[in-house]
Amino acid sequence: MENTINFGIDLGTTNSAIAKFVKGDVVVFNNPLDYGRSTLPSVVYYKKDRIVIGNKAKEYLERDPKNVVGLFKRKMGTSESFQIKSINESKTPVELSAQVLKELKTFVNTGDSLDSVVITIPASFDSIQSNATKEAGKQAGFKQVVLLQEPIAASLAYANMKKSKEMQDGNWLVYDLGGGTFDVALVRIKDGEMKVVDHEGDNFLGGSDFDRLIVEKLIIPKISEEYTFDDLENQMKSASGKYNAKYYSLLNQAEEAKIRLSAVSSAEIIVERMEDEEGNEVDMEITITKSEFNNLIKDSIDGTIEMIKTILTRNSLKSNDIQFNLMVGGSTFIPFVRQHVEEVLQIPSNCEIDPTTAVAVGAAYYAATKQKEISKEKSDKKQSSLSIKASYNKASKESDELFAARVQGNTDGLFYKITRQDGGFDSGLKPLSERINEDLPLVENTYNFFTLTIYDSENNVVETDIEPIGINSGFGISGQPLPEDICLEVDDYDNPGHTRLALIFERNTVLPTKRTLTFPINKPILKGNESDRLWINVYEGPQTSLPEANKLIGVIEISGKQVSRDIAKGSDLEITIMISESRDVTVSGYLNMSDQEFKNVFNPKERDTNISLLKGQVLDLSSKLDEEIELATDKEDYETASALSKVKKEMESVAEEAEKLSDDDVTDKRYQLEDKKRKIAQEIDSATKNKRLQKATEYYHEIKVECEELIDTSGNDHERKTFNDIVNQEASFMATKSPLKIQEKSDELQAIIGQIRWRTPEFLKGIFAYLIENQAKMNDQSQAKSLIDAGKFAVESQNWDRLREINFGLFDLMPRGSKDEISTKIGFGL
User: Fold this and answer.
1) Which of 472, 504, 523 is the last residue of a domain?
2) Tens-place pLDDT, residues 667-690
3) Residues 480 and 199: beta-carbon distance below 8 Å
4) 3-state secondary structure 173-242
5) Rounded CA gap, 365 and 17, in Å?
6) 532-554: buried (b, 16+ CB within 10 Å) or exposed (e) per residue?
7) Which of 657, 504, 517 lies closest to 575 in space, CA to CA?
8) Are strands 40-41 and 51-53 parallel, antiparallel or unpaired?
C-alpha cells in the first residue's frame, strides 16, 4: 500500500480534473465518457431516476434548466441551496461538489482505492469556504482530505516541469483566471526553496462572468431594441421570472461564442423559441465581434492588473523584478487576457503549461509529499515483529536528505541496509538499533526511490511494516500562507459602546499555526443559565478595518450551562486558536476562575447574504461616507475629502446595482456586491486613518501620564517594569503610524491602571456610590436592592473582593446606554 496520498484534484468552478503522482511523474486521467478530454464540466443534472454529471449534464441546460446546476463552487460556504424540480429537493453547493468528486473517481483506471486526496481551492477562499470543500470531499467518500491553494499547485506543476537547471532564483507571478475565480500570487525561489510570498484574488471573477456580460450587455439590449419587453433582464435573472429558463440557455451559447472568439473574429448567437410581451415570436441571429468582447471584459482584466500592482507595491517590487507571469486557468486561453496583461505590466506572459490541467498536476506533486493519515485496514499479511516509523522530507533540492527512523521491537542481532532503486547508493550492512539516521544521496531532477531492508544474523530478510522511501529531487513548497488576517472582535474601551479587532494571525503567516491569548471577559456568566453566553466573533480581513468591514467566519461561544460555578466579569479567559494547513480552525478555552478547559468552542458561520439586508447596509455605508466627506471638508482636510470622493463613485455604482436586485435573483450578484461593499468600507477606514491616528496618539499620551502617576502612588515593581517596557517601545510603534497598534499599547497601559484601581478600596467605594446614585436606571430593582445591601455590608466589613463582584453585578443591571456613560465617566470597563 502506498504511504503517500499521490492523488490530486482540481475542483473547478466550470471544469474539474484528477491526476496521480506515479514514480516521479504525474498522470492526468482522461474523461472516460468524453474522448480526448481530461476535464469534467462541473455541472450536475438530476433526472427522477438518475444523476448525470459533466458534458451530458451541460447539454440539458437549454432543454431542462430547472434541473441542471453549475457554478455552485462560487456559493461554497454560503447558506444558499439549489431547488431541483425533478426530485422536489434542494441541494447545497457541498452536496453538488461531492457529486463531481464522485464522478472524478470513475476516471481512475489503475485499480487504486481512493481514500485520501489533495483538493485545490482558490487562495482567496475564506475558512468557511475551505471547510465546505473538505466536507464535500468527505461526502464523496474520501477519508482524508488535504486542501491546497491553487496558485501553489500551479507553481509546483511549472517548477517540476522545468526542473532546477532551468529555474533561477528570483520572483514570478501566477495569474490564475479560471471559470469562476481569480487568484494572483507572487512566488519566490531563493536558494532552491520555493515560497508563495503574497497574493490577491477575487472569488467572483472568471470566465462565467464574461458569459454573463455577453448576455446582459450585448444580447439582452439587442433583443429589447427589436421586441417589446418589460424589464427583460430582471425577468431572466429572477428565479420566478418569465424568461429565467432562457437566461441559462443564452449563458450556454455565450460560453460557446466566447470560446470561438479565441480563434475567429466573430461568433453568432441564435435567439429563438420565446415570445415578447405582445406575443411576437423572437427570432434573431446576433453577431458578437472579437473587439466587442474584448471591450466588454477590459474592465475586469484591468481589475486583475490592479491586484498585481497592489502586490508589487506591497512588496517593494517593480515589473522588471518579475521574471514572468505564469498563465493558468481556462480563461487565460483568451488572447486579449494574455496580451493586455503583458502590455500594461511589461511582464512577459508565460504560457508553457496547460492552463486547464496545471492545478491538478501540481496537486498530485503535492500529494506525493503528504503522508496518508487514515488507519490501514487489516490484511492477511503476516504481522511483522518490527515496527518502523520514518521521518524525511518528501521533496528536497539538497544533494542529500536525512532519513530518520525509530524502530520498535527487539533489534538484537539484526542489521539494516538502504539501497537506491537505480543501484547508485548502498549504505552497506549496519547493526540495527532503536534509531536510524542516514544521509541519502539524491539524483538531481528526478524521483529517488530507496528501500530499507532488515536482515537477521544469517542475512535472511526480516518482515517490517515500512513502506518504500520516496524523495522528489524537485521543488516543494515551504508551507501555505494564510490569505487574510484572523482577528477577534473585542471591546473598544477608548470608544465605549463600540468594538475593534484584535489581531490573532497576520496574513501570509505560514500554516499550520497556533497562538494562545488571555482576555478579561466583559460580562458575568451565571452557572446553569443558558442565556448567559460569552460570545466572541472571529473575523477574516484587515486588522486595521472596523469589524463590519470584514468577513465573519464564526464565533467562540461558552454558555452558563458549561461552567461549574458563577464567573465574575473581568475574569481571565485563555483562548488557544489553531489553524491547520487545510484551514481548519480549532479553538479551546480555559477559564481561570473555574479551572475549566473547554474544547471545540468555535462555531463556524455560513455566509448568509439577505438581499433586503444588503440594500440597507449599502444605504447606511453611503450615509457614513457622505458624513465623512462633509467632516473632512469642514476641517479643510481636502486630501481626505478627495480620496473619499473617489470612493463615492464606487459607492454610487454599488448602490445602483443593489437597488436593481430582485429578492430571488439567481446570479452571484449579491455576493459580488457584498464583497464590493466590504472593500469600500475598508477604503473609507483607510482614507480616514489620519483622523484615527491623531485620536489614538493623543489618547496614548493622556493614558501614559495617568498610568505613571498611578504607579508612583500605588503601583508595584512588576507594574513599573511593564510600564517602562511599553514606553521603551514607543518610538517603534509610533513609527508604524497604525492607530490600532498605538491603541493596543494604550490598552496595555489601561490594563495596568485597571489592575491598580481594582485593588484600591477608595476606587471600589467610589464606583459603588456612583452606582447607588443610578439605581433608578437599573433593569431589576429587586436584585439591585439586594446587591446594594450586600455592598454596604462589604464596605463595613472591608471585604473588597466581594465589593468588586457586587459592582460588576450592579453594572450589568444598567441599560446599554447608561453602561457606556458610566464607562466613560469612571472607566468601569477597565
Assistant:
1) 472
2) 889 999 999 999 998 888 888 877
3) no
4) EEEEECCCCEEEEEEEEECCEEEEEEEEEECCCCHHHHHHHHHHHHHHHHHHHHCCCCCHHHHHHECCCC
5) 14
6) bebebbbbbbbbbbbbebbbbbb
7) 517
8) unpaired
- 670 shares a domain with 596: no
Give the model's pLDDT for residue 375: 55
- Which residues, in sequence order, are CB contacts of 779 under 8 Å at separation 6+? 813, 814, 815
* Total domain count, the chain: 6
The residue ranking higher by pLDDT, 3 or 356, is 356
* Number of neighbouring beta carbons within 10 Å of residue 141: 13
512, part of any domain: yes
Strands 116-121 and 144-149, sheet pairing = parallel
Whether residue 794 contacts residue 808, with contact meaning beta carbons closer than 8 Å, is answered with no
Runs of H (alpha helix) within 578-688 = 611-634, 638-660, 669-687
With contact defined as beta carbons under 8 Å apart, do 174 and 154 qualify?
yes
Give the CA count within 13 Å in the CB-facing half-sphere of 611.
Answer: 16
The reported pLDDT for the residue numbered 140 is 97
Same domain, 150 and 34: yes
Q: What is the Cα–Cα distance from 348 to 322, expressed in whole angstroms?
A: 9
CA–CA separation, 311 vs 323, rounded Å? 15
Which grid coordinates belong to 243?
A: 424568461
Task: Judge whether 621 and 589 are in contact, CB under 8 Å.
Answer: no
The answer on pLDDT for 558 being more than 70 is: yes
Residues 599 and 618 in one domain: no
* Cα distances (angstroms) measured from residue 70 to each of 91, 224, 374, 409, 426: 12, 27, 32, 55, 54
Region for residue 287 given its phi and psi (left: phi exceeds 0; alpha: psi -120 to 50; beta: otherwise)? beta
What are φ and ψ of residue 25, in 5° steps?
-120, 170
Residue 654's CB is within 10 A of a number of other CB atoms, namely 22
CATH assignment at residue 418: 2.60.40.10
CA pair distance 78, 132, nearest whole angstrom: 9
For residue 829, pLDDT over 60 is answered with: no
Closest listed residue to residue 722, CA positions, set 759, 760, 753, 763: 753
Please state whether beta strands 82-84 and 89-91 pair in parallel, antiparallel, or not at all (unpaired). Answer: antiparallel
Amino acid identity of 750? Q
Beta carbons within 8 Å of 564's beta carbon, 6+ residues apart: 527, 594, 596
Residue 828 has pLDDT above 90, yes or no: no
Single out the residue in 239, 269, 289 at which a domain terminates.
289
pLDDT tens-digit map of 73-85? 999 999 999 999 9
DSSP state of 317: -
Burial of 449 (0-12, 13-18, 19+ CB in 10 A): middle
Shortest CA distance to 575 belongs to which of 552, 555, 554, 598?
598
Region of residue 798 (phi > 0: left; psi between -120 and 50: alpha; otherwise: beta): left
The residue ranges of DSSP E strands in 529-598, in sequence order, are 533-540, 551-559, 572-579, 585-591, 596-598
**Distance from CA of residue 462 to its chain's centroid?**
48
User: Domain of 597?
Assistant: 482-604
Structural domain contains residue 769: yes
For 495, the grid coordinates are 470608544
Q: What is the CATH number of the domain that holds 268?
A: 3.90.640.10
Q: How many residues does the chain have?
A: 830
Are 510 and 550 found together in one domain?
Answer: yes
Distance of CA 645 to the CA centre of its chain: 31
Q: What's the confidence (pLDDT) of residue 534? A: 84
pTM of the prediction?
0.79
pLDDT tens-digit series, residues 132-158 = 999 999 999 999 999 999 999 999 999
167 compared with 696, residue with greater pLDDT? 696
